[in-house]
């Protein structure tokens, strides 16, 4: 049976060679590959600084510490996102204040103002599935109320908001390089980007045992550094990102063409350059459809079945369960279809044929 995976990382001869060269270089941690990758990532996100760390989660924890996030602070965030979006703030003792999504599955900017309290310090919009959050009204409310904005770009490398790259617009932003992401380092990895010299410097220090020079530790830090082999792989991926995102968009266009009127398709705003980290359809018969597809070798995913406001990890933190009707409705109906930068259109056609067959039979 033909197997179609949900996602697949980009690995070619160039990646293999870059990894071998890094092995032979004799440098392993925070060497020239990391320095160059950071320089290229800063350029890519149109920022002064990029600082690599061992994951998005690690990088954002260090960013929160560097920006002074403290116990009792509140951060406005969608509930409909990966749990790690809120994990770093929890480690700082801050409280996530959950806001519902709009029809793009990103935070609804119209609901943010009402969620602000005297304890609110920032907003963390997530560019979910590769579609940018509506940043202009988010940044406007943040300016008015003196809040920071950290863009969660873990799923949106290369996406654009009104022509500007995501990651370039908020106070700071962060990317993940986990293997399924649009840009990967073939393992865990992440970075923050910012224009703030002091914040970048502090994150650099914290990731490396709190030091700026070898034997002087200015604060107690961590070992959340990055390595040469993965940086070398990531640099090749970054050079191919545009072309891989174009492959995702071509697959998405085919899904749209074939599945229009069959299932509910993802919304794309006219100002959005979507990079389709996920292609998420909706149907009330989601679980039966997923079962039907996996029996035909087609892997699907649910991103995410349990919204964060219902996660046991934060039951003790939430005073009352927030009312998030669009989130509650979405989590029971969403289904992520196979998509990656090198998926063939005949693979997409096979997935569509099977979905159409399921809908006809049911
Ligand atoms: C939206 C979002 N935010 C944050 C993360 C965390 O990234 P990482 O696994 O690199 O810590 C992920 C990936 O799981 C994600 O999809």
* N-C termini distance: 23 Å
Question: What would CATH call the class of the largest domain?
Answer: Alpha Beta
Proportion of residues in helical segments: 25-40%
Placed side by side, the strands forming the largest sheet appear as: 1-9-8-5-4-2-3
- Report the β-strand fraction as a percent range: 5-15%
Point out poorly predicted stretches: none
Quaternary status: single chain
| Rg value | 21 Å
Please name the CATH architecture of the largest domain.
3-Layer(aba) Sandwich
Element pattern in H and E: HHEHEHEEHEEEEEHEEHEEHHEH
Helix-strand makeup class = alpha/beta
- The geometry reads as globular
Q: How many H/I helices?
A: 10
CATH 4th-level superfamily of the largest domain: Type I PLP-dependent aspartate aminotransferase-like (Major domain)
Major beta sheet, specifics?
7 strands, mixed
CATH structural fold name of the largest domain:
Aspartate Aminotransferase, domain 2
Average of per-residue pLDDT values: 97
What compounds sit in this structure? pyridoxal-5'-phosphate
Write down the domain tally. Answer: 2
The tally of beta strands, per DSSP, is 14
């Amino acid at each position: 049976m033909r197997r179609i995976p949900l996602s697949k990382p980009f690995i070619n001869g160039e990646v293999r060679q870059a990894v071998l060269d890094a092995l032979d270089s004799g440098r392993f941690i925070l060497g020239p590959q990391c320095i160059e990758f950071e320089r290229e990532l800063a350029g890519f996100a149109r920022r002064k600084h990029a600082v690599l760390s061992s994951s998005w989660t690690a990088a954002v924890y260090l960013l929160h510490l560097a920006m002074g996030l403290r116990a009792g602070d509140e951060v406005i965030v969608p509930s409909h996102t990966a749990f790690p979006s809120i994990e770093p703030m929890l480690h700082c003792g801050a409280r996530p204040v959950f806001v519902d999504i709009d029809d793009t599955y990103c935070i609804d900017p119209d609901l943010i103002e009402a969620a602000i309290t005297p304890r609110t310090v920032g907003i963390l919009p997530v560019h979910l599935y590769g579609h940018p959050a509506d940043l202009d009204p988010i940044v406007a409310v943040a300016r008015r109320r003196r809040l920071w904005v950290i863009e969660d770009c873990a799923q949106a490398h290369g996406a654009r908001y009104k022509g500007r790259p995501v990651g370039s617009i908020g106070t700071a932003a962060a990317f993940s390089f986990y293997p399924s992401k649009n840009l990967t380092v073939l393992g865990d990895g992440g970075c923050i980007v910012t224009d703030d010299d002091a914040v970048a410097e502090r994150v650099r220090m914290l990731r490396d045992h709190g030091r700026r020079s070898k034997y002087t530790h200015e604060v107690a830090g961590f070992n959340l550094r990055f390595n040469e082999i993965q940086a070398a792989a990531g640099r090749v991926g970054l050079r191919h990102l545009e072309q891989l995102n174009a492959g995702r968009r071509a697959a998405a266009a085919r899904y749209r063409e074939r599945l229009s009127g069959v299932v509910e398709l993802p919304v794309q705003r006219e100002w959005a350059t979507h990079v389709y980290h996920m292609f998420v359809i909706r149907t009330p018969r989601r679980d039966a459809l997923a079962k039907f597809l996996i029996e035909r070798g087609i892997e699907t995913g649910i991103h995410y079945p349990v919204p964060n406001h219902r996660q046991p990890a934060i039951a003790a933190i939430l005073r009352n369960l927030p009312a998030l009707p669009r989130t509650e409705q979405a989590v029971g109906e969403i289904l992520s279809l196979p998509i990656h930068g090198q998926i063939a259109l005949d693979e997409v056609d096979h997935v569509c044929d099977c979905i159409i067959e399921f809908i006809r039979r049911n």
